[in-house]
What does this fold into?
Amino acid sequence: MSKQTVFITGGAGFIGLHVVPLLLDKGYRVRIFDNMFRGDRDQVAKLAATGDVELVDQDVRYGGAVHAAMKGCDLVVHLAAVSINKSQADPYESIDINMVGNHNVFAAAADHGVKRLVFASSASVYGDPKKLPMHEDDRLDPLTPYCISKRAGEDLLAFYQRSKGLNWIALRFFNVYGPGQKPTAYYTSVINHFVKRLKTGQPPIIDGRGEQSMDFIHVHDIARSVVAALEAEQGNVPVNIGTGIDTSVATLAEILIKAVGVDVEPQFNPREVLVSRRAADITRAREVLGWEPTIAVEDGMTDLIKVEVA
Ligand SMILES: NC(=O)c1ccc[n+]([C@@H]2O[C@H](COP(=O)([O-])OP(=O)(O)OC[C@H]3O[C@@H](n4cnc5c(N)ncnc54)[C@H](O)[C@@H]3O)[C@@H](O)[C@H]2O)c1
It folds into this structure.
């Protein structure tokens, strides 16, 4: 049987570069569609050397380009987006790429009759959660153009499902971290900030009591969830992808102190902070995708620091 081809937008970015090798291991061919705004050309060149990966250097804002490039592909992964922190500064760009871009990819996938489209949604569709853990059926309250585009993306997928039979899964990624992440990444800026200080022997400084928390999920587990979503029997649902564990900023500081191996205590900066907390209910990920997180946050953070030091 000839190999199936996966079309992956944003495939040259942080998460994409962890997904592509898993797809190759599974015997797929891969067509990366990326404007290389944040893509890594060297990594793509290494993957292309396998003979099973090609790069289309194009922009999701151009519907015709997306449609033409997707021809002949069996499955689609849509990761291309601009990040949450840019979306408040430049809503126009965010809407162009994240809203129009989503639509171009979904419409093309529906037209080409692909077997499954996997969309990178985000935990930010929930806004500030009222309770933990956060469940897929909880009320959505997206607060910025980026988050609004993720929620609208899920709604558009349901539209193309009803009108053209498109089969989809939207993965609501929680706080992704791991090797290859750019230091400017929104969720992980706190990791970088702490590690920078620890490497010069200074204690991390925590605002308030460090009670605000995130559900840190390793990029390798994220990549596994994307492959599982392409292959899952059941479709047409959003699925949370996290560990289910909320790690407070104070706990993160302790994990990083241990990982870097310095003898300091975190310093607390007494001030009022808005405490937001996050943890995913991952029951549906287990049931629909047969997926479990495999990397504990302590191990993932420790490995990350080893890689960065080496
Ligand atoms: N990293 C996280 O913590 C996180 C959390 C939730 C959701 N997500 C979502 O996962 C997806 C991948 O995130 P990432 O962390 O790998 O981001 P990233 O910025 O590393 O990768 C995005 C890729 O998309 C490409 N791209 C950007 N604009 C484009 C355009 N107009 N046309 C074509 N390609 C374009 C970039 O060049 C880059 O290679 C995004 O949709 C993001 O919103 C990420």
